[in-house]
Amino acid sequence: MTKRTEGIHHITAIVGDPQENVDFYAGVLGLRLVKKTINFDDPGTYHFYFGDEVGNPGTIITFFPWPNAYKGRIGSGQVGVTTYAVPTGAFPFWEERLTKFNVEVTKNSRFGEEYLAFEDPHGLQLELVERDPGKKSEWRFGDMTPEVAIKGFGGATLLSSRPAYTAKLLEETMGLEKVGEEGDYIRFKSTADIGNIIEIKISPVPKGMMGVGTVHHIAYRAKDDTDQLDWKSHVESAGYGVTPVQPRQYFNAIYFREYGDILFEIATDPPGFTLDEPKDALGEQLMLPDWYEPQRDKIEKVLLPFKVRELD
């Protein structure tokens, strides 16, 4: 039986100044900062998680803010565009809102859907699409209401150095359904209501360079630890080298680089972000794993201060 991922678990990107990052994703886009922690491999760097009211899988975008770091280049071997889904009828609100915050918006269409395209302050390519499926966000912040708020990911566009190989992986190994080709794109779909669309750009693009304004990796969902180990064996049997399980506190992770040079992760849905903070206090404190707690004073002195601010 073919294994099938439910779709996107999270997307992780590299950005610049942490206050600019928080202002945009919380203050402008209205997402909730559900976790403020550190990069476990680089404890002098924040790791921010933004999502819906509890950071459900399929809603989570995460960031490593590198102030004054070098600018990256979006290209092959990366996620090129991250798409968010909003309720049907929400576009007028978003066009007005993004314009209010001096965000340049362009419109485009593909596969019968309209998109609002824009960039974040550090150059990440984003889109909004109206879709009925997926529950409305319960998080209220600033002028945001459930009738217009981002539900979670609509999907992602992959820039592969070998599109045919990446397409084969998505369909035959990850279990996504190929639902169409249009112009320069191939579209795949999972069974979930959100985070369920993956598109591959067919035409070649120059190789990307990791840095500020680029996506580091895209993670797909595993139901639990047992399912993740099944995924590890399944992906290895398809000829890919997969890392051992890495504990990430709020999920466990395995990684592999597919033949189009994009870093893929498979992450467990549990335990989630209420593991170490109550729901009503998510993201308020700097949370450290046990092995870094003895270094808290040193770590806090290195990290730049910031605030989650309502900008309306």
Automatic annotation (TrEMBL):
What InterPro entries would the database entry show?
Answer: Extradiol_RC_dioxygenase (IPR052537), Glyas_Bleomycin-R_OHBP_Dase (IPR029068), Glyas_Fos-R_dOase_dom (IPR004360), VOC_core (IPR037523)
| CDD domains with a match to the protein in the record | PcpA_C_like, PcpA_N_like
Q: Taking every annotated instance into account, which residue ranges of this chain make up the domain VOC?
A: 7-131, 152-269
Recorded superkingdom: Bacteria
**PROSITE patterns from the xrefs?**
VOC (PS51819)
Q: List the PANTHER family.
A: RING-CLEAVING DIOXYGENASE MHQE-RELATED
Designated name of the protein: Glyoxalase family protein
